[in-house]
Amino acid sequence: MTTLLDDFLSGDRSRVIHALWQTIGSRDPGELDPLVAALPRIRRQTTALDLGGMIYSNNAHLEHAFTKIEQYRDGKCWCAAYPGILTNDPRKEEAAGHIVIRSTSEPGWSMTYDCECTVCGQEFDVEQGDHHFTWWNWVPRGRKRRRGEV
């Protein structure tokens, strides 16, 4: 069985891309814990790798995966990874139980969402747009709850 760490260190473009997307989408400590200690090694191993990308650089997605690992290491909420990447669809995040959509603008390709993290209460303004693909820009706002606060 190969792990995400194996994929990151493989030097194989498709395996690294698979690992970065799995990392970005993961909330599984069993997947992320091994990556925390290995992050400097993963960075070195992937630094010269051209991951391509037609509309948006996959190397930028790789950097976002590294940011997610660092945020996880630092004890930040899962929602801290939303800003900086344009692929988190609020409807899918709500269906997974990660956020609550409190309100939306009129339906259309250019919508806005008022969202709240179900873990820490962080509020987000999310703008949806479309240019070759649908994207979502997450902007944190408001006050979030501290750990243990209701």
Written account of the structure:
A hairpin with a 7-residue loop joins strand 1 and strand 2. The chain has five helices and four strands. 39% of the residues lie in helices and 19% in strands. The chain folds into two domains: 73 residues, no CATH class; 63 residues, no CATH class. With 150 residues, it is of the alpha+beta class. Helix 2 crosses helix 4 and helix 3 packs across helix 4. A four-stranded antiparallel beta sheet has the order 1-2-3-4.
SSE blueprint:
Elements: H1 4-9, H2 13-25, H3 29-46, H4 58-73, H5 90-95, E1 99-104, E2 112-117, E3 123-130, E4 134-141
The number of distinct β-strands equals 4
What's the structural domain tally? 2
Q: What is the global morphology?
A: globular
Structural class: alpha+beta
Mean of residue pLDDT values: 90
| Pattern of helices and strands | HHHHHEEEE
